[in-house]
UniProtKB/TrEMBL annotation:
<dbReference type="Pfam" id="PF04414">
    <property type="entry name" value="tRNA_deacylase"/>
</dbReference>
<keyword id="KW-0378">Hydrolase</keyword>
<protein>
    <submittedName>
        <fullName>D-aminoacyl-tRNA deacylase-like isoform X2</fullName>
    </submittedName>
</protein>
<dbReference type="InterPro" id="IPR007508">
    <property type="entry name" value="DtdA"/>
</dbReference>
<dbReference type="InterPro" id="IPR018033">
    <property type="entry name" value="Deacylase_DtdA_archaea"/>
</dbReference>
<keyword id="KW-0479">Metal-binding</keyword>
<keyword id="KW-0862">Zinc</keyword>
Length: 312
């Protein structure tokens, strides 16, 4: 899913509540805690409150770095828990984590989160709740460009693949969220240069070094990256041989809910934007593609043309 902003103007009559950004790390994952330590080594950080569950925090401007001791997908609702404990409003969440892949190739990845394809009663293997997708963090696209630049300057390219991942896990959040990951084996999870690149991405991307933040949705127009669904997030039961046209309603599976959940989450992440669907034509069989196009049309979800997704 990709998003495009329309300009809007409004007036503000009341002083807004304190807005903060959460960066979340865990001590049990070297690809998470190592970049967090690199980030905390930079100037401006102060100790913050500790949540009742023993989650430690550090403050730097409008950024709060949270550090806990569980698996990164095990701490649901950190955004709401922070708001309840501090009275500060969370406007986005960024998780630092490891990435695993069968290829074992070194990689730096960015992705949104959710398990929109699971049905009620399913047990998510990596956190989240069935049928849910978090609003995608609008920074993902601009930060991918920045990540390539920083990784290249630290000589990680071409050794490391720099790429987006599809939506595939939790934890549960309600605010615009993204994961930044180091992959794909323990050797690379512990790489100091990879940790430095991720820390610098967050540092520069959030404007902590004094420069302008990168990827603020309210400041740019053009094409943005939203929820990303792969084939496993679109379960479609093969209708079998048919002499006539197969309609979308004839194809069972949770694929329709998955699309709708991803669309609604993307719309929440890009208020005021036009939501476009992008289809990787080569990833689908003809009956799958036809069903998806039919369903998108019935849902009034516009399918973008190649020109819609060009960098502006």
């Amino acid at each position: 899913m990709l998003c495009e902003k329309f300009r809007t103007e409004s007036s503000v009559s009341e002083k807004p509540a304190k807005m903060v950004k959460l960066v979340v790390a865990t001590t049990v994952d070297p690809a998470s805690i190592c970049p967090a330590k690199e980030l905390l080594a930079k100037p401006g950080w102060q100790p913050g409150p500790t949540l009742n569950e023993g989650i430690r925090s550090f403050s730097n401007g409008d950024v709060r770095l949270l550090e806990h001791d569980k698996g990164i997908v095990e701490e649901d609702d950190l955004d709401q828990r922070w708001e309840n404990a501090t009275g500060q409003t969370v406007d986005e969440v960024i998780f630092l984590s490891k990435h695993t892949a069968v290829s074992n190739r070194p990689a730096l990845t960015i992705h949104p989160i959710g398990v929109p394809h699971l049905k009620e009663g399913d047990v998510p293997p990596q956190g989240g709740k069935p049928g849910w997708a978090a609003p995608p963090n609008p920074r993902m696209g601009p930060w991918m460009i920045l990540l390539n630049k920083i990784a290249e300057s630290h000589n990680l390219i071409p050794e490391f693949e720099i790429t987006f991942e599809a939506t595939h896990h939790g934890p549960v959040t309600t605010k615009p969220t993204m994961f930044i990951e180091i992959g794909s084996t323990e050797e690379y999870w512990k790489r100091p240069d990879a940790a430095q690149v991720v820390a610098l991405l967050v540092w520069e991307g959030l404007g902590l070094g004094g420069g302008p933040p990168v990827g603020n949705w309210s400041r740019k127009d053009g094409c943005w990256v939203g929820q990303l669904l792969s084939g496993y997030s679109l379960p479609m039961e093969d209708p079998g041989p048919s002499k006539g046209k197969v309609n979308a309603q004839d194809i069972a599976g949770t694929w329709k809910h998955s699309i709708r959940a991803a669309y609604d989450a993307t719309k929440a992440g890009f208020p005021g934007g036009e939501i476009l669907a992008h289809l990787d034509q080569k990833s689908f069989k003809s009956w799958q593609k036809n069903a998806i196009i039919e369903f998108l049309g019935a849902q009034n979800i516009k399918i973008g043309k190649p020109g819609d997704f060009q960098k502006s």
